Amino acid sequence: MSLYRNTIWFLKGLQEYTKGGYEAAARRFNEADLEVNVRDRSFIITGANSGIGKAAACEIAKRGGTVHLVCRNEDRAKEARNDIVEQSKNENVHVHLVDMSNPRKVWEFASGFSQKHNLHVLINNAGCMVNQRELTEDGLEKNFATNTLGTYILTTALIPTLKKSENPRVITVSSGGMLVQKLNVEDLQFEKGSFDGTMVYAQNKRQQVIMTEQWAAQHKEIHFSSMHPGWADTPAVRSSMPDFHAKMKNKLRTEAQGADTVVWLAISDAASRQPSGLFFQDRTAVSTHLPLAFSRSSSAEDQQLMSKLEELAVKFKC
């Protein structure tokens, strides 16, 4: 089954996830969707010092938004801020240093932020793909800690703050790679069997899509969405998937093309009229499963994921 999923997914990707796929999809975009002023709105973007996160931050800043960059590396974050301010002429760009793989630090940041700031839109963009099984200082598998648990804690902790705002939204940057994975709640941190970083990442991205669906059902006041940016030429792809990058580099999307749907979901009225909890690709809600791939989990499994994450999260709460 995994060979079938992987083959169908790659063929789909060649047609839809590349620069050519974006250009074909963009022909139906309504450019007026992004002609908005968001100067009274506040945005958090994780992993915003490069790639899709930085590109999204820049587009939002250009439209007047107050942008909070959540980054791990201080020097790169400051450099990104300077670039964004220079390009957008918007000084309301702020840096917060947080390691998303450290659950205590995530809780601490969310608590402090909520006391000082309002928030309209959370963009969960930070992610990692570590190709060898590596544990954090808390004994958590690093991909899971960053991509899944970090996203869960940050979102959960900021939901009360989001609910105080008008038209609040949460966008999680997932990946089309999740289509090759069925949720596995029995081994969230890949303690059993061989370790394949690409498949671990895909499993994390499946978990993010399910989290989004569950949050949408629980919190009707907030508009939740997840999305696939396509195959984009970002520093993360170059470092984590060098062979893929070398083979596909001429077909990869630009960072701005990868960020387009993130920005559309974050600021457009058209996006907020879509049902909450959906998965988007090129400004369109798409299926979260490949045909005949048997990748659907049960509602009990989905709820079990949320319960396990909550159980883990509270252990690290400040």
SSE inventory with pairings:
Elements lengths: L1 H15 L2 H8 L15 E5 L4 H12 L3 E6 L2 H15 L4 E5 L5 H14 L4 E4 L17 H22 L5 E5 L23 H22 L4 E6 L6 H6 L1 H7 L6 H13 L1 H4 L5 E4 L2 E3 L12 H17 L3
Helix pairs in contact: 1-2, 3-4, 3-10, 5-6, 6-7, 6-12, 7-12
Descriptors:
318 residues, alpha/beta, globular
Summed over residues and divided by their number, the pLDDT gives a mean of 95
Structural class estimated from helices and strands: alpha/beta
Strand content: 5-15%
Order of helices and strands: HHEHEHEHEHEHEHHHHEEH
Shape: globular
Major sheet characteristics: 8 strands, mixed
Radius of gyration: 18 Å
Share of residues in helices? 40-55%
Low-confidence stretches: none
Distance between the termini: 43 Å
The DSSP helix count reads: 12
Strand order of the largest sheet: 3-2-1-4-5-6-7-8
The number of strands is: 8
Description:
The termini are far apart. The protein contains twelve helices and eight strands. The radius of gyration is 18 Å and the shape is globular. A hairpin with a 2-residue loop joins strand 7 (278-281) and strand 8. By secondary structure, the chain is an alpha/beta fold.
Short overview:
The protein is α/β, with parallel strands linked by helices and 318 residues long.
